[in-house]
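// run 5 | inverse folding | seed 20
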């Protein structure tokens, strides 16, 4: 027989005997079901009749009723496939030939593993068929993303990581976490931002947390996110877990859906080299600037900072790439700029923006827990802020979906009063004397001076800590946030 002929007659991986032995064990003793219920589902059976029998067992046991040949006979009286097999006798034969339930979990694993192999065959066949289909508009790279997403879903199928832990085990982990924070500078238990006020309020960016950083355009969201990313990547990770990691510094991944990687790099070079970003963009660099630029590029190049600037990523593709980064380089912090530029993957989400945002925020939160890293996602605010006299944002200003507030562990807003004050230059009113106008203008000018380059981070929600405001300084020329300079602002701002 020719090789291609034998390939055509290949049968998908399966083991009927293992399926029969498992079902028999369940029918004899329903406790066998609980040994496999966490990872095994009806669709994992190769034989459709076995899948229906297993599903019938699941339904009976879920109702607190006995699943055996007698009770299942009533369920399957109208099942054509079982009637053809003489279902009652077949159920009896399964029970009669049952192995001890001690082996039930092993049989379940065999059935599940073979189902994974069949799933792998299907993913491969689908990928081949898509590649051959000339009518599809998807590019080769997009098809790779689809295949990776399908493989990720297949890899997660049947995972049973969640289970009860004894309270002493949980307490031990909590004490380790507290001890780790005690050893760290500044008593920061999470990934440090190296912005004193933020670290004091948040205790660093905590693993498994979804943090939303929101603000209106020109408030400095991206600048703050980039500052936090660079600060974290340059910080030493002294936890016990990091001793085995490739990098001693915190590994940071940035998904930049709005700006190119080169634009982000320019911002970082500007802040590190203390050269105005506008001059760097225009190439207006003096001879004496080059040593600082070279030194900044060398220092930044040594950081474990990774940037993906692919536009319009789907949440599934983003998750796949984040998992790949953690597997190959390690990962301690993920930054997404910004949330509204991500795409959903569900068919229903394509027609409903609220559902799409809900899928995205739930996906980001699930990814934070799955990868056990903090995810810092930027978000736009609605224009409702502009219509109020007090421009400070509130939770109700989050755009498009209440799920952003609901799914987030921390919600922060960036607010710069200087931005609004600088656009409210007083003009002389009718019948207003010059002296009165001069007084108003002087008051406005003094207010502008008081808030020059000052930014406020409003922590509106923190699930595990206090809310409140943090005062920061924005070096607008360098696109960088810092702690307030001592003596530069009124004393009450430093508290």
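// decoded
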């Amino acid at each position: 027989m020719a090789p291609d002929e034998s390939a055509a007659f290949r049968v998908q991986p399966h083991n009927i005997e293992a399926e029969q032995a498992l079902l028999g064990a369940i029918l004899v003793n329903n406790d066998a079901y609980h040994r496999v219920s966490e990872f095994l589902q009806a669709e994992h059976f190769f034989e459709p009749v076995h899948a229906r029998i297993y599903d019938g067992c699941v339904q009976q046991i879920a109702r607190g009723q006995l699943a055996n040949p007698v009770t299942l006979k009533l369920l399957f009286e109208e099942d054509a496939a079982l009637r053809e097999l003489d279902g009652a006798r077949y159920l009896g034969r399964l029970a009669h030939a049952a192995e001890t339930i001690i082996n039930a979990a092993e049989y379940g694993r065999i059935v599940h593993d073979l189902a994974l192999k069949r799933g792998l065959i299907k993913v491969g066949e689908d990928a081949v068929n898509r590649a051959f289909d000339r009518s599809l508009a998807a590019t080769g790279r997009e098809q790779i993303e689809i295949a990776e997403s399908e493989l990720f879903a297949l890899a997660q199928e049947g995972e049973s990581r969640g289970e009860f832990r004894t309270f002493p085990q949980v307490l031990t982990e909590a004490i380790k976490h507290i001890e780790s924070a005690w050893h760290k500078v500044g008593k920061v238990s999470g990934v440090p931002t190296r912005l004193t006020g933020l670290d004091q309020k948040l205790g660093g960016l905590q693993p498994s947390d979804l943090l939303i950083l929101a603000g209106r355009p020109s408030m400095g969201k991206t600048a703050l996110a980039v500052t936090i990313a660079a600060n974290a990547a340059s910080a030493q990770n002294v936890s016990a877990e990091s001793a085995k990691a490739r990098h001693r510094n915190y590994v940071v991944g940035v998904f930049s859906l709005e700006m190119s990687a080169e634009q982000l790099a320019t911002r970082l070079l500007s802040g590190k080299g203390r050269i105005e970003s506008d001059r760097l963009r225009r190439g207006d660099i003096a001879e004496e600037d080059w040593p600082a630029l070279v030194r900044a590029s060398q220092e930044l190049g040594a950081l474990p900072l990774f940037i993906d600037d692919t536009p319009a990523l789907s949440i599934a593709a983003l998750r796949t790439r984040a998992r790949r980064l953690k597997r190959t380089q390690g990962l301690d912090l993920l930054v997404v700029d910004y949330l509204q530029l991500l795409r959903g993957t569900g068919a229903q989400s394509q027609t409903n923006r609220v559902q799409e945002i809900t899928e995205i925020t739930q996906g980001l939160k699930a990814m934070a827990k799955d990868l056990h890293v903090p995810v810092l996602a930027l978000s736009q605010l609605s224009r409702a802020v502009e219509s109020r006299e007090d421009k400070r944002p509130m939770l109700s200003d989050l755009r498009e979906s209440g799920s952003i507030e609901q799914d987030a562990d921390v919600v922060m807003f960036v607010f710069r009063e200087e931005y609004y004050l600088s656009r409210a230059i007083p003009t002389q009113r009718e019948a207003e004397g010059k002296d009165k106008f001069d007084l108003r203008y002087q008051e406005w000018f003094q207010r502008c001076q008081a808030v020059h380059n000052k930014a406020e981070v409003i922590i509106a929600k923190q699930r595990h800590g206090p809310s409140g405001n943090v005062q920061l300084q924005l070096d607008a020329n360098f696109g960088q946030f810092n702690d307030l300079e001592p003596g530069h602002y009124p004393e009450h701002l430093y508290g």
